[in-house]
Amino acid sequence: MKTPMPRRVDVSEVTEVFVDELRFLTFDGHQLRMEFDVLRKDGGAPDDDSRAWTYTASRIVMSAHGVPALLDQMIRLNQALRQQQQQKSGEAGPAPPEPVLQWKGGAVGPSN
Questions:
Q1: Can you give the residue range of the structural domain that contains 68?
Q2: Residue 96: its pLDDT value, please?
Q3: pTM over 0.90
Q4: Rounded CA separation 76/92 (Å)
Q5: Which of 53, 58, 74, 79 is the S-S candidate for 36 at Cβ 3.0 to 4.6 Å?
């Protein structure tokens, strides 16, 4: 017998945060920690890269239980983006290298 899925409640008070990059990602076997940053430039000199700052925008901690679903969604996103890029360029191009996940226990990837 299957375990029933919990009901989902959309909490409207949760804020949406826009980020420019994933700065940090670790997995210790129990939790996946992600830190996202946003880049801001001085409004008076938007073309001067020396007047840009990176701010932490969000930190997310996910239990190990949710990591496989996250990875599955990221693989699907990667495949969709590759297809889109191939359709725009009209050619396949070289395949990117396999990703490596850095975590406190060592590296996980194609060489391990």
A1: 21-89
A2: 58
A3: no
A4: 18
A5: 58
Per-residue pLDDT tens, the chain, 112 aa: give them: 788 888 989 899 989 999 999 999 999 999 999 999 999 987 777 777 788 889 999 999 999 999 999 998 899 889 888 888 888 887 655 665 555 554 444 444 544 4
In angstroms, the CA 63 to CA 73 distance is 16
In whole angstroms, give the CA distance from residue 103 to residue 67: 13
Q: Per DSSP, which regions of the chain are E strands? A: 21-27, 31-41, 52-63, 101-103, 106-108
Q: How many domains does the chain have?
A: 1
Residue 12 domain-assigned?
Answer: no
How far, in Å, are 67, 98, 110 from residue 29 at the CA level? 10, 21, 18
Name the burial class of residue 32, with classes exposed (0-12), middle (13-18) and buried (19+) by CB atoms within 10 angstroms of its CB.
buried
Q: Is residue 105 part of a domain?
A: no
Residue 37 and residue 21 in contact, taking contact as beta carbons nearer than 8 Å: yes
Q: Which of 29, 40, 22, 17 is nearest to 103 (CA)?
A: 29
